[in-house]
Amino acid sequence: MLQIVFRSHLTKLLSYTDIQRLCLAAARNNRKAGVSGFMIECGGVFLVSIEGEHRDVHGVLDRIFQYPHHDGIEIVYSEENLGRRRFGAWAMNVMFMDDDVFWQTVFGSGLSCDEILLHRTMEPVFALGLLAMAYHYACSRTKILPSPVGARPGRIPRISHMFRR
Ligand SMILES: Cc1cc2nc3c(=O)[nH]c(=O)nc-3n(C[C@H](O)[C@H](O)[C@H](O)COP(=O)(O)O)c2cc1C
């Protein structure tokens, strides 16, 4: 299996509802393709992980590249021969991270989430850690297993599972 983590930013402002719709559409596509994913969003910047068989992930990536309202897609990390999915609970889910208090508590004062997501060079380990933190938080809040078993992981998220901190 292949995991790709990328960062991109919106070129058009979208509301929470728009982003939730986008996530739902992505989840439906991904579910059909057997791809699972998770993303965090802050200030119009996304950090996204998608995982699945190589061909399926590349198919999804093609669609992502074609999506017109985001830009500057930067692959932050990729791993081939992934033994098991790291973010397999949902076909795609999103967590909104736009709470400065949270970021300052975790990373120290003076930082805001869009500074971290937008301006910093995104170290792969940092990106994976950030996604993992958000993912495990979402799994524990929804009581969904972070490492699902079975042939078809990747459920469609409920809107109420797209967390805002
Ligand atoms: C940050 C970001 C992540 C996306 N992730 C996916 C994805 O995982 N799968 C996908 O099919 N499209 C993804 N897209 C692209 C579109 O959101 C998606 O294809 C579109 O909303 C689907 O609409 P439709 O299938 O109803 O035409 C992503 C777009 C953005 C901006």
From TrEMBL:
Pfam families: BLUF. It comes from the Bacteria. Residues 1-93 form the BLUF domain. InterPro entries: Acylphosphatase-like_dom_sf, BLUF_domain. Gene3D superfamilies: 3.30.70.100. This is BLUF domain-containing protein.
